[in-house]
What does this fold into?
Amino acid sequence: MLTKRIIACLDVRAGRVVKGIQFVDIVDAGDPAELAHRHAAAGADEIVLLDITATHEGRATLLDTVKRAAARLFVPFTVGGGIRSAEEAEAVFTAGADKVSINSAAIARPALIAEIGASFGAQAVIVAIDARRGARGVEDAEVYVSGGRKPTGLRVLDWAREAEARGAGEILLTSMDTDGTRAGFDCELTAAVSAAVQIPVIASGGAGTAAHFAEVFGRGKADAALAASIFHFGVTDSRALKSELARAGVSVRLPC
Amino acid sequence: MIAVIDYKAGNLTSVVKALHYLGAREVVVTQSPDVVLAAEKVVLPGVGHFQATHLLGELALTEAVRASIAQGAWFLGICVGLQWLFEGSTEAPATPGLGALAGMCERFPAVVDGAELKSPHVGWNSLELLRHDSRLLRGVGDGGFVYFTHSWRAPVVDATAAVTNYGGAFTAAVERDNVMGVQFHPEKSAEVGLRVLQNFLEL
It folds into this structure.
């Protein structure tokens, strides 16, 4: 049976993990390559590295980080943040990423989705959508860029459908409304996007407990969910999270 | 020497990396029929469109692989590389496969038992009905999880060594003598996947 995926996400700036998951025994935020290995060993189904460095020097650091992480990582590995062209995507793939996540660059130039897909396959292109609900709720939820600061005027459901039509392999949906609240994912919005497209939807934003994951996999119809700060608050790692989910009747990769 | 065939479909980095990690010494990424003919083992990776295998015919690699298999070299096809062992795929009807196995690869149905089936099939799914004489799957248990990402699937045939269920059973692994293939990505399937690659290296 196809299982629900738990994806560990590392937010990286200038070669260091700046927030997101931290193991209890690591005081420093940590080296992303080292943390990626630890998460894979701790049962994560997939690793996502989101780079929030904007500088040119930062890109070289990122590629080095990706290379070091990928050298011993044998689960799917996604890299996102600042990828604006097929050439930049290629550099990340060559360094060892299996998928890239693109966000504002795809909105600025939707043809980028197909350009990357043409060389590396649709499965390698994740379109990340930062969404905020509108006055009418899910129906007029809007796509934001620039870390959730800039509205685009695009409806989330329309953009998700267009991203699929243009060849996206998966959608990474982050709810700006629930992100950081630890009060649960936006299940309604996730379910609406999941119903709108055929491709898998990864839910992100708002995870606080294992029950929140069970909800987004059930009611939210998510195929995968991103775990970041949840590991600060009680649930120790992916394996522990998945054990709880299995007890709640969710199909997960266990043993892992 | 292990020849990893480069037919410009997707990313070879992770397959080569995994082989090196497992201690393989001579791994050559190649488009040369001569290199394929000289190799003891041949790996055909692939993430992408079946159409991409057209290049194998153009570069005379199809015939090289056929000859290599006939002279007893071990062959492992991954993802589209497994599908290519069959007669072809509805994904690219004009592009024939190797035809070592009978049958055509087809797209996952959009609806199964009245319910919509998402496609592509992406994620970790389990291996079932493992053939106990399989050398490729030695040490892998029924229910072992591996990582898939694909929209077309191969039919279940005599050579099927394991199936996976998604909108019905499809071939997750094939093995007939020295010809082997996996629909999943062993290089991305954690310990289970590394075990499969290790088994192939130890042949």
Q: What stands out?
A: Chain B has one domain: 2-202. Chain B touches chain A at residues 9-11, 13-14, 17-18, 21, 47-49, 110, 116, 118-126, 145, 147, 149-150, 165-166, 187-190, 193-194 (CB under 8 Å). The longest helix of chain B spans residues 190-202. The mean pLDDT of chain B is 95.
